[in-house]
Amino acid sequence: MAQATLPPEVLDDAKARRYSADAAGLGRLRAGAFVAPALALISLFLVFPALWVLYLGLSNYRLTGAAAAAPQSVGFDNFVKALTDPEFWNSTWLTFEFVLGSAVIGQVVLGFLLAWIMRDRTGPLKRIVEGLVILAWILPSAVVSFLWVALLDRDDGTLNTLLHSQDFAPLLDHPMLSIIVFNTWRGAAFSMMLYGAALGNVPPSHLESARLAGASGWQQLRDVVFPHIRGHVLTNLLLISLWTFNDFTPFLLTAGGPDGKTEVLAVHVYQVALQGGELGYGAAVSTVILLINLVVAVFYLRLLRSKK
Amino acid sequence: MSAIELRGLTKVYPGGVKALDSLDLAIPDGEFFALLGPSGCGKTTLLRTIAGLETATGGAVVIGDRDVTGLQPGARDIAMVFQDYALFPHMNVTDNIAYPLRIKKVGKAARQQKAAEVGARLGLEQLMDRRPGQLSGGQQQRVALARVMATQAQAFLFDEPLSNLDARLRLEARTFLKKLQHELGVTTVFVTHDQAEALAMADRMAVMESGHIRQIGTPAEVFQRPANTFVAGFIGSTPMNLLDGVVRGDTLEVSGCKLAVPQSAEGLLHDGEKIVYGVRPEYNVYSAGPVDGSLGGNVSIVENLGASYLVTLDVNGVLVQAVVPEGHEPLIGDEGYALPRRDRALIYRDGELVPA
Amino acid sequence: MTRFVLHRIGFYVLIAVLLAFFTVPLLWLASAPFTSDPTYQVRLPDFTSENFRAILDNPYALGSLWNSVVLAAGTAVLVVVFAALAAYALSRVRLPGRDALLYTLLLLSSIITGTAAMVPLFQLAVELHLIDSQLGLILIMTGGLLPAAIFMMKDFMDSTPKSYEESARVFGASPLQIVRHVVVPLVRPGLATIAVWAVANVWGNFLMPYLLLSDVEKQPAAVIMYTLYTEGGQANIKLLATFGLLYSVPVVLMYLFVSKKYGFRFHGGIKR
Fold first, then answer.
1. I need a surface site. Which of A213, B91, C118, C223 has the fewest CB within 10 A?
2. What is the number of other CB atoms lying within 10 angstroms of the CB of residue A67?
3. Closest by Cβ to B58, choosing from A1, A12, A21
4. Over A119-151, what HEC string results?
5. C residues 123-152 closer than 8 Å to A (CB)
């Protein structure tokens, strides 16, 4: 033990850097290698397309023809075209109706109602109701879309049978209302589960003290429950609005028709860019969608952070 | 089995927090050594730096005659028991104990035999096929010890080995650990925040505070002659009375009372200097009537310690504690006198013991 | 007392209405496959298995289910492996810019949806000759699912104590040994969750395969199902009923498995 050791100052970094101090001794180099494949795929198939869409929006790219071979920059023409196009504004308005009707009103209200009436129940009734609501949510969209096509069919749809009506064709006569009801049915499970979890976190002692003070059901809801789940309501609203806004499933029911009466933005992009071949114009609309998503997502992440 | 030596060991975290400040420490071969201190004092960082789980910013760790400062934890020939034991939940007891040997590429039959051997020594024969989740806290601890024993490392490191056991089991495990360490004779360093645990188990101990070692010594030395007021306040199940005083000729004036100079400090004090007078409640002799050279006041609290009572006197506004045997405890409000034992009382100057 | 009775009655009427709303659209899927000569109308089934012949008669039905399996399994494997590696490194090593990276990943995964990115993705697939390539589709869907998967997986890794790895490390295990012997077994439930989540996502995904696979032989069940009920002429209802059922069953089984084994932990959407 008599051998000379260097004075501490000289040892400093050279020695410390010889190996890494994370739990498994992985080291930054290996850690980088672990992250790399995921980052490569995300960059190529998620980040790059998002940037590409910005570039496309500024070009006259088409699927076929002269512009397909040599696309040229056209500045903000596509955006100007979109913003002055009545079809774009029609789609935007329809999307607004769809999100407001099926997500903000439909799913939130129905989801909360389901969570509220099931809150202190146990047993088979609760399991059946929840199971059915969740089933509507997890079945493949192509299957449920067809189920609704069959349900609403003009000739021998089940709805007509139930109503003893004939030739009632909701998908043709009230297409927007149809997809709103459909999407409410389809997505209520998420809100139900989120509110169910939130209601489970309301301390029973608070509800009991409100009941002791003689509060009615409605007063309990307003004064005790709502303050506790306010954060969840906002989270829920932002998430389902974002999802509904980007939902392509209406296409499976109506393909945007009849007469573009259900051509929400998601479907509009498809029709214009991939059916019509106007990639540049479609990209400009995509950019608008991206921007709206960005705004909602930033709000959502702010909310998550402030909760932590 | 090897000695452990630390030379000028320093650990600075990114962000500038100095967890260890140039520590020197020598632990001879075969010693059971305790690192004691309040939470955040750096004792766990020190243990983890010896293990190599934290890299030293400066200084050296020497195990046996090897400087291991730059070596991976696995190359240091040490073994460690973690606070939560870190038994792999997906392996049964045999596989857990044999894991270090698996890493050393010992054949399956050989390592299972070794695991059975060590397991039997710790009374785990019946449990070898169970998963850690099916074991009690005490059993888990013994599996962790068995796993460490199976390594035949040069030194053992235990991080708060008893803190995950419930109070009753802890006393039992304390005795068991001490006995085991003496039988094995392996140099062992353990970390604890419980001074009673350190006093009971360790051959020697280091008391740490904010990255510094404040005293190194045997439990008896640390208990009887704490080197400074920090150690004096930290060691002992009832904290030491630390009273401000002034030297008046060849006596002391402490909160209005006249006390004799303790034997250890005789002839070392100067007239008029300010000191801190330290005496453990156990070394205060209590009486109901006035005694020369005692701290007199009124009883303000009486606490039951079982076979004795802890009496708190209000001496002119300063609280002084004394331990009184059962059957002699006073009532609240009584007059009382605490006479410190001259051979046990201590004097601190600027927070350090006189004589150092 | 009457108030209480009225309350009860109101409650059960409400439950009945809600049950009907959620049940009626699903009835057809339960009855039609087992009804002779099914129509769009829901009728009491006579429990025939005759309709299932239609699946064998259709040249693409069984193949499309197999395609769905290939796409789902391929994507799930890539997502689990890459997400686990990345999440482990991000959880355990202080890489520079880690927090910013995670934040960006979370943001990206929520804003770049299939809808917003269909135009460039289609074009990218054309340029890279990935149209009609199942591997290409797998890679694209993996890229889309990875950010959320990494995020969920990192949460899981963060909640696993480091002392297991440190313990193995003190015994001399190398980083790769630690990953193999300790980390993978410890996080297996998390890996299973991510795998199920990825499979469920790909299984139901319609837009991406619809966009990128034009060869009927390569299309998954989602696209074939859509083609079956939108193509011209009289739709083959026998086929639609049985095929729809067969296509749905795996999802339901998977849901039952997950909710039984892990209690359907609420992860902010096991689907989508």
1. A213
2. 18
3. A12
4. CCCCCHHHHHHHHHHHHHHHCCHHHHHHHHHHH
5. 123-124, 139-140, 142-144, 146-147, 150
Q: Provide the shortest C-alpha distance from residue C188 to chain B (in Å).
A: 10
- The string of DSSP letters for B113-160 reads HHHHHHHHHTT-GGGTTS-GGGS-HHHHHHHHHHHHHHHT-SEEEEES
CB A97, CB A152: distance < 8 Å: no
Strand partners, B347: B277, B354
Residues C60-75: tens digit of each pLDDT: 888 899 999 999 999 9
CATH homologous superfamily, domain C61-214+252-262 = MetI-like (1.10.3720.10)
Q: How far is C9 from chain A (nearest CA, A)?
A: 14
CA C110 to chain centre: 17
Distance of alpha carbon C76 from alpha carbon C60, whole angstroms? 24
Structural domain boundaries in chain C? 2-48, 61-214+252-262
Q: Do strands B251-254 and B318-325 pair parallel, antiparallel, or not at all (unpaired)?
A: unpaired
Contacts of A271 (CB under 8 A, 6+ apart): A256, A263
Q: Is the pLDDT of residue B53 over 50?
A: yes
Q: Is B28 on the interface with A (CB under 8 A)?
A: no
pLDDT tens digits, B167-225: 888 888 899 999 999 999 999 999 999 999 999 999 999 999 999 999 999 999 999 99
A82-307 belongs to which CATH class? mainly alpha
> CB contact, 8 Å: B60 with chain A?
yes
Q: Which of C8, C58, C269, C255 is nearest to C145 (CA)?
A: C269
Burial of C82: CB neighbours in 10 Å, binned 0-12, 13-18, 19+: buried
Give the domain ranges of chain A: 82-307
Does residue B33 register a pLDDT over 90? yes
Q: Which pLDDT belongs to residue A259? A: 80
Q: What is the pLDDT of residue A19?
A: 55
| CA angle centred on A131, ends A128 and A137, rounded to 5° | 145
Q: Residue C57: how many CA atoms within 13 Å on its side-chain side?
A: 10
CB of A156 within 8 A of CB of C40? yes
Question: In angstroms, how far is CA C45 from the centroid of its own chain?
Answer: 30
Which residues in B have their CB inside 8 Å of a CB on C?
A: 51-53, 72-75, 78-80, 82-84, 86, 88-90, 99-100, 103-104, 151
Distance from CA of A128 to the nearest CA of B (A): 35
Closest C-alpha to C241, from C251, C231, C249:
C249
Question: What's the mean per-residue pLDDT of chain A?
Answer: 82
**Nearest CB partner across the interface for C82, out of A41, A142, A255:** A41
* Structural domains of chain B in order of their starting residue, each with its CATH number: 4-225 (3.40.50.300), 241-354 (2.40.50.140)
- Whether B53 contacts chain A with CB within 8 A: yes
Can you tell me the ipTM of this complex?
A: 0.85
Angle between helix A108-117 and helix A124-138 axes, rounded to 10 deg: 160
